[in-house]
Amino acid sequence: CTAGSPLGTARLLVTLSAKPPIINGLYTNKTIIKVTAVRHSKKQIDCRAEGTPPPQIMWIMPDNIFLTAPYYGSRIVVHKNGTLEIRNLRPSDTADFICVARNDWGESMLVVRLEVLEMLRRPTFKNPFNEKIIAKPGKATILNCSVDGNPPPEISWMLPNGTWFSKGIKTSQFLTGSNGTLTIYNPNRDKAGKYRCAAKNKVGYIERLIILEIGQKPSILVHPKGPVKGISGESLSLHCLSDGSPKPNTAWTLKYILGNYVCKAHNNDSETALREQSKTYFDW
């Protein structure tokens, strides 16, 4: 600007500076971010706006309510610097929150997609102990790996040969269920061994061991070659060694006062066990 008179001339230089708004240092008109928070906690979301002239900051809430900084509510606060604060988060707060920064030269927008989660929990097994299962040959057997946690853990199984199966895998020999089970079709000695169940989520990882054995009919290992003789009045030991899976129980019965003693070996009576019996006789 120049002003003149008979007495002289004066000049004034004015420099105009104008900058459209930017949010959080991002030189884009629209930015979309995802954030998570835990239920009942407090969450602060930054919306630091810069520009010339200084931009006005406004938050658009999910129910289309406009909150201009600063704003102080009982649960929601918009600070002078544009930060949105939400207290005592609820599942219904899972939504999009939009920050708009505007001046005479333009506007910039930040879309925040908030997800409210339940309290995060590491995976835990409902049965935390290692386990041994005895399967009946040829009968489908289910290994259980029930687990709890938040977010819901991903479950996988490692077979005795080191192969890993995730959920939803189905082959001619195995099926992994969505509830953490592993079904073994037609179990035999080739499928016996150590199975590992693993569960993981974003806050933890755990493993559990299940040993699978294949049931075996009981058998008596030692049989007398003939009558066992004893001396009247002295003690006499009769041996009855047995084998099987599960480990057999043995019982003795006296058939006659002077005659046969019978040893019986039998497995426990359960769904995955065999129930058979073998006998050996001792005559004297």
Automatic annotation (TrEMBL):
Keywords, comma-separated and alphabetical: Disulfide bond, Immunoglobulin domain, Repeat, Signal
Gene3D superfamilies reported in the protein's UniProt record: Immunoglobulins
Chain coiled-coil ranges: none
Protein name according to UniProt: Immunoglobulin superfamily member 10
Highest taxon of source: Eukaryota
Tagged with keyword Disulfide bond: yes
Phylogenetic classification of the source organism: Eukaryota, Metazoa, Chordata, Craniata, Vertebrata
Any Gene Ontology CC annotation: neuron projection
Gene this protein is translated from: IGSF10
Domain (Ig-like): residue spans on this chain: 20-117, 123-201, 218-252
SUPFAM superfamilies: Immunoglobulin
